[in-house]
Amino acid sequence: MFAKIEHGPLMDRVYRHQRHFYDATRKYYLLGRDPMLAGLTPPTSGSILEIGCGTGRNLVLAGRAYPKTSLYGIDISNEMLATARKKIAAAGIGDRATLAYADAAKFEPEAILGRREFDRIFISYAVSMIPQWQAVMREAINHLTPGGALHVVDFGDLRDLPAFARRGLYKWLEWYHVTPRNDLFDVAGEIALAANAQAEIHRLYRGFAWISVIRRHA
């Protein structure tokens, strides 16, 4: 049903061991995740999909913040999905969470998740690791309900940080196959325009983190 996923094996190699301590270390620099989650505000009994759900950390927090929502997650790494399933079960929200292995650039949510559209879709620090990230965002818009919204949080352009800090962070991210998308806001605006939707931008922590929101009209 799906084309061969070549990025998956790379992510499995990267996270095979990291997944066990991923959340403990990433909390210090994956800034903006919690403000993004707080801004989801889905309708009561709505649906939330995370693209690149990783360890399940964000879905657990979303489940606690929005206790009547249905939760969904996809990831291209089976290693991460294994950790996510354990974390979600431990949080006691397994009865309303569905996870699946998929390529976010081209997937069939109805076939793998049992649902075609979602009230909220979010991508947290994943577009910087997905080669075809623009296609992923365009595909996500196609799976929003009327009035639904796509929320993306990732590294920003670090514009207001000292030059040495920018250089050091970019070099460090390169080691982990992470490429900040400094044109994220521009691309989001283009996608919103093509979809007759509305784009919002939020710059946090001196440009360290960016949040992009694309809202479909009801």
From TrEMBL:
<dbReference type="GO" id="GO:0008168">
    <property type="term" value="F:methyltransferase activity"/>
</dbReference>
<dbReference type="InterPro" id="IPR041698">
    <property type="entry name" value="Methyltransf_25"/>
</dbReference>
<dbReference type="InterPro" id="IPR029063">
    <property type="entry name" value="SAM-dependent_MTases_sf"/>
</dbReference>
<dbReference type="Pfam" id="PF13649">
    <property type="entry name" value="Methyltransf_25"/>
</dbReference>
<protein>
    <submittedName>
        <fullName>Class I SAM-dependent methyltransferase</fullName>
    </submittedName>
</protein>
<dbReference type="GO" id="GO:0032259">
    <property type="term" value="P:methylation"/>
</dbReference>
<keyword id="KW-0808">Transferase</keyword>
<feature type="domain" description="Methyltransferase">
    <location>
        <begin position="48"/>
        <end position="148"/>
    </location>
</feature>
<keyword id="KW-0489">Methyltransferase</keyword>
<dbReference type="InterPro" id="IPR050508">
    <property type="entry name" value="Methyltransf_Superfamily"/>
</dbReference>
